[in-house]
Amino acid sequence: MAGSGGGGDGRGGGPVPGLAGAAATRAAAAGRHAATAAAAYETARTATVPLEMLAQNRSRLVSLVAADVLGLNAPAIAATEAHYEQLWAQDVGAMAGYYAGASAAVAQLTPWQTLLSTLESPVGGMKAAEAAVSASSPSASTAATGVTLVIGGSGYPIPSQSYVNTVVADYVTPTFPGFTTANAQSLYTPAQSYWITGVKTLTEDASWAQGLTILDNAIHAQLATGNNVAVQGFSQGAGIASLEMANLKAEGVPTSSVSFSLIGDPMNPNGGLYSRFDGLTLASMGKSFPGSTPANDYPTVIYTIEYDGFADFPQYPLNLVADANAMLGALYVHPQYPVLTPAQVVTAVQLPTQGRPRPPTT
């Protein structure tokens, strides 16, 4: 009596249903990759400079040049040109981020063409599809890639690759060994702070808000592809990363998926300037003091150099000598994190958490 199911002719319950299931899985994966590419586009669109801002800059330059008498407008002309360069740098950073994000998503689609090319043979197609799914879909047997996103401080919107390699090797890998320079990338943020980066730049609150959106989108783009993420932030970048912790917790992102390494953190619970003066608002400068970096939301390590006026502000501000020391530290000590040697970094002394952590977001 002939067998009645699962025959080798492909009309039973064997290869064809398996191939269809594999194809459905790949289609779902393709949808996720498309969403990742779309998120990269939205991030780039948000980060690009509005055309009217470029037009205003050029119009101002023409007016300054036309009214220039004996070179009196030279400083203003130079400042306008410098601002124009910043605008273009912002656009370049946005496009570079979009290219990196979209390219990563497109690269994941390659196995789909392999699947389609094998459809002539149901059995062969099923095997190729299963191989494609196992190769491109995250699973318990395949370790997730550890991707590090590096954010610069005020005035440093696009960290260079040499900077990225240095801070990841010195401040990320020693604590989080799964994150190395091999998968580390620079993340553009506006990195502006009114009066610190110039009177024609964004206020710090506005810059932090834009940077927070960019970071959140970048993290979710990596998580959507099955990667784990480490965020390395310096100064303003550390503050943005601190605020992002609350967002991720509210969104239910697992603590095992995202880690943070912060240097020169102004929200440092152990003496950060914004932690010391939690709740203070300087409306004329567009700056709010958001408090401390959350203590227990995600795996976090914070590196602080003693006397850094932004990350190690005096506990007793009425001590004028200590205040003067902090001001000098903000100028001369705060920028030193990227130039410390590995030997200096490993001598760091661990301190207990102090200060009031940011309240949970509900």
TrEMBL record:
Sequence ranges assigned to domain PE-PPE in this UniProt record: 182-356
InterPro entries: AB_hydrolase_fold (IPR029058), PE-PPE_C (IPR013228), PPE_dom (IPR000030), PPE_sf (IPR038332)
Gene3D superfamilies: alpha/beta hydrolase, PPE superfamily
GO-annotated biological processes: response to host immune response
Residue ranges of every copy of the PPE domain listed in the record: 22-110
Recorded family membership: Belongs to the mycobacterial PPE family.
Name of the featured protein: PPE family protein
